[in-house]
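In response to the reviewer comment on reproducibility (Comment 2.3), we provide here a single inverse folding case reported in full, input and output, so that an independent group could reproduce the run without further information from us. The structure tokens appear first.
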């Protein structure tokens, strides 16, 4: 029997599991990665061998009745997120799931309610809320650094697919070769993390949204076929948001804007001060935070206190491992503490997905959309 406090099964043996999930969990001395699961037995065995995991499984359901497995980590493709998460919660397992749990906010909310009814903890793969710079900024905001909040600006922008020959996975609802309405892609896959940070920092109920989507590079290489096809997806978005307070916000997401991955930037301005967090891997550094006050308006870079890093962590290491190590450490802390604390959970995921659903409706109907019009609360 393992002496570790938590035993985790990682479902999905793709690149993100290999770069972030498995090494993130293994960085925590309290955690054992007990199994790697993938329908592709060869892929699962390869990742298991790389990280020294003994158990390889091709069907996650084989683990649901195993009382030694505490957490199911869902790192599969989007289409499997909801079912694996739901089945795992039904079986009494804590669940970490990559975003989105479901494209319909109501389904994500239902999963959140199921977890709550069973006293289980959930966590969404909102990787960037766990960046040390973002967590430090949140504490500064809560301590009153910006004063009364006025404006939030959020960006997720990088040039991953500015080259049309870069293989792209077909988005749900996007049919190659047909001139159909734009299917949601960038705002859901890439905008979700900055939407999450916006809600977390602003901390007020959203009331209204308006915005638009664009398909700047319509013909792309389809990953599944290797052929150039018309892909009817949003690869650039701009949105404005209102809350039940004077705060207003803007969100921009794109993967055809020149810049390095992941391309997250969050700015918050208030009556007393302002802060800018950049999560952009540049010149070997993966994050920075700058602040200014009304009495000293030049933005100055701050050192991020070591308490916001995982043990041994620095801003010079690759961001996927650094940020994800904080995410899984936070989840382990919450599970082992046994209290009510559970940030970035499925309820937060439902809020973010509901926001995306509101954005989509606004773009399609070319109007301001009241948040109350969108179900999923």
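Designed residues, in position order:
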């Amino acid at each position: 029997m393992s002496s570790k406090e938590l035993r985790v099964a990682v479902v999905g043996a793709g690149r993100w599991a290999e770069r972030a999930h498995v090494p993130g969990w293994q960085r925590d001395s309290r955690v054992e990665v007990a199994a790697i699961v993938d329908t592709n037995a060869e892929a699962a065995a390869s990742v298991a061998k790389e990280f020294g995991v003994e158990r390889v499984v091709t069907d996650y359901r084989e683990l649901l009745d195993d009382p030694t497995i505490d957490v199911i980590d869902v790192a599969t493709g989007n289409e499997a997120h909801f079912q694996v998460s739901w089945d795992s919660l039904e079986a009494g397992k804590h669940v970490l799931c990559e975003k989105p749990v479901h494209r319909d906010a109501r389904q994500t909310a239902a999963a959140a309610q199921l977890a709550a009814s069973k006293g289980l903890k959930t966590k969404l793969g909102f990787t960037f809320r766990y960046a040390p710079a973002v967590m430090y900024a949140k504490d500064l905001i809560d301590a009153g650094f910006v004063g009364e909040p006025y404006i939030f600006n959020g960006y997720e922008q990088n040039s991953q697919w500015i080259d049309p020959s870069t293989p792209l996975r077909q988005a749900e609802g996007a049919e190659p070769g047909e001139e159909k309405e734009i299917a949601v892609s960038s705002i859901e896959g890439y905008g979700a993390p900055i939407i999450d940070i916006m809600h977390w920092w602003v901390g007020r109920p959203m009331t209204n949204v308006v915005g638009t989507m664009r398909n700047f590079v319509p013909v792309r290489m389809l990953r599944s076929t290797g052929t150039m096809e018309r892909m009817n997806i949003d690869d650039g978005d701009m949105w404005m948001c209102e809350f039940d307070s004077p705060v207003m916000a803007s969100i921009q997401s794109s993967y055809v804007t020149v810049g390095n991955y992941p391309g997250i930037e969050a700015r918050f301005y208030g009556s007393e001060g302002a802060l800018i967090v950049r999560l952009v891997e540049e010149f070997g550094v993966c994050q920075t935070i700058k602040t200014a006050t009304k009495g000293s308006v030049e933005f100055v870079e701050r050192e991020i206190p070591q308490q916001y890093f995982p043990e041994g962590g620095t801003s010079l290491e690759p961001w996927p491992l650094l940020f994800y190590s904080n995410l899984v450490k936070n989840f382990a802390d919450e599970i082992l503490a046994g209290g009510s604390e559970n940030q970035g959970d499925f309820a937060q995921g439902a809020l973010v997905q509901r926001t995306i659903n509101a954005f989509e409706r606004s773009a399609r109907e070319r109007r301001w959309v009241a948040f109350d019009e969108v179900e999923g609360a």
